[in-house]
């Protein structure tokens, strides 16, 4: 049985290397004759290892340590670094870049090699950096399109790059703010007199009592009111031929009206032709008595507040909205209100007013929301949580918020051009909501944009721009 020649050659090479090392290490005498005859045979069996060709591309540690240098160097023990030529370099690619180019024919000729760590360093020939990493080839055509960058499919897969189509959607931004329930200023009234009077008696109404418009609150005697009533009665009883006429009657009635005499009081004079001693003073509107000052027998001067009445059938909810959200709020928008006293009930109202002044201390704007309160459960000074759904009903062009790279000065998205090419494109943004953002300019419908790991592609784009500038600078010198 014949032994393989290759195995014999390998064993011979190992023995020869050991003997040579031992001989060279102990003396400078010439090699023995038998060893001088063996080495040519080994060299013929493996000429690639015996004859290194090509330029020196770097220097490696003579002891086999992972240390490399682009220039000649010595170790700490004084040993020279070993030169590594192009034919001796180890490549982990399936085939050299030149071979791939020849086979595929679509990447073109290699223009130069760039630093694998992104540093602005290029080389016209293959080389390694200080960590032993191969410089990456840059082919003709890859830098022709200054607006795009090409990323390999393997790198895209490892980085987890995800693509999404820009599409039209309805944006609904939810503005949330705490609020407080307040009385409607237009539904409040006070009861006071326009003349000096004396309260004979107050009806059985107290603070918190609900009263109706026209309901009697108290009985009053007023000397000025009685005098005006007597004048009006005289005008009513005067005969037409006395010359007093209708003008006097109208004047007497106007005086009673100026004293704010109730219509029931004037009607009683016209019906009975008598002057009542006391006036029954009515409630001016429906509502709850929120304050009662009137008591039996008190003297009331003109203008003194005797009762305060508020109607709570409609209440306000006042909220403070951050300045940045003010542009989203419009009068007429629907608002959902949840009271902390009734967390399971939802109340719906409308935005009726955006107050004209901003609060300088908090940088917020006050918003008024009107709520119907038919069952009187909404009480003033209650706390509420308000949500206002903003946004137009017309769909707008949107992308995911993660697709936008915001540098502060400009906003860009990365558009997928196909075949691993991506184009950074500046855009103008609009409203935001639901994890999406409106694109006003820069994109068209159905454009594909990167929504995940886009910062890696952006780094490649910045690197390309730096290398392009470096390349142009070298050409201009």
From TrEMBL:
Occurrences of domain CusB-like barrel-sandwich hybrid (ranges): 189-310
Residue span(s) of domain CusB-like beta-barrel: 315-390
InterPro entries associated with the record: Beta-barrel_RND_2, BSH_CusB, CzcB_C, MFP_Cation_Efflux, RND_pump_MFP
Biased composition (Basic and acidic residues): 100-109
Family: Belongs to the membrane fusion protein (MFP) (TC 8.A.1) family.
NCBIfam families registered for this protein in UniProt: RND_mfp (TIGR01730)
Protein name according to UniProt: Efflux RND transporter periplasmic adaptor subunit
Species in which this protein is naturally found: Bradyrhizobium denitrificans
Species lineage: Bacteria, Pseudomonadati, Pseudomonadota, Alphaproteobacteria, Hyphomicrobiales
